[in-house]
């Protein structure tokens, strides 16, 4: 009898954990090594402060406080001619905003505040690794669910590690 009760309790705990993970409310957060750019230190935004959409060749993730004071944006692209999908993209080129889609996966990162418009990582040799573990689109193509983790190396010495989750 004790074994049965222990098994039922363990199953309940496992189901509770799975339910909590599935109920991820979303958000955006990162932590940077000293000297990283354009992200510095660490920051996070809640689910209501994150949006995601697809425009042209990129899936864009925007995080912004309600007053517009503090913001960050990622742009994730598959190689030219392909649509971004779930998967791991290693050694993605970090390209400048408004540049054409690359033949390799690419990544654009912006960071700023109302007091400091900030900038984007555009250093020669900058790379990023990112993993899209969930990407769902509605019938009209609108992004409805997105889970992504990333590591950005804007310089060889410093990295930014983060994640973004959007669920409509």
Automatic annotation (TrEMBL):
Keywords: Signal. Residues 1-20 form the signal peptide. The keyword Signal applies. It comes from the Bacteria. This is Secreted protein. It comes from Amycolatopsis halotolerans. The lineage of its organism: Bacteria, Bacillati, Actinomycetota, Actinomycetes, Pseudonocardiales.
